[in-house]
Amino acid sequence: NAGVTQTPKFQVLKTGQSMTLQCAQDMNHNSMYWYRQDPGMGLRLIYYSASEGTTDKGEVPNGYNVSRLNKREFSLRLESAAPSQTSVYFCASIDPGHTEAFFGQGTRLTVV
Amino acid sequence: RKEVEQDPGPFNVPEGATVAFNCTYSNSASQSFFWYRQDCRKEPKLLMSVYSSGNEDGRFTAQLNRASQYISLLIRDSKLSDSATYLCVVNILTSYGKLTFGQGTILTVHP
Hints:
A: mainly beta; four-stranded antiparallel sheet; 0% helix; B: six-stranded mixed sheet; five-stranded antiparallel sheet
């Protein structure tokens, strides 16, 4: 039972490069999320998807795009990476009763 | 003002101590409340939900005061393995379940 699988675990990018973070869940959840975590800031919501085919901006969406490819997969794309996007990124899904969020293991991204 | 605020600590306590964490939230529409635990360089995981009547899970007790918009977590008889960051989480129930996280409180339990 994998839960939420997130790849890659580590990535170093040069400023201006692009990349896509992949996330998949096998719990049949409708709602999926992308967060970033910075020291002293807690987790901040980048984008979320309430269901397949829908996505919406969260608290800090600038510089990111997302795709909800199907019910299982929700990807996050950085089109032109900036040093300010150096962070730890977490994908999560939430159960239908909204009682528990399940997180992937995180992606540690460094933009130089 | 942040939607969810916690004392970031760090809290350094000896084994066996009792420690309490506090959290305040600003949105009165918040409907469910949680404490998550995050170990160093790991993902957050649910520790316990917080109910209006208060609830206990072993050495952990959570309290909610809706009138004051305040949540607390009490850990009794601290263990070395309790060392982690504790995240206060508030859910404003919508169709998608919006979870808002506090910045976390760092706890270190020492021998």
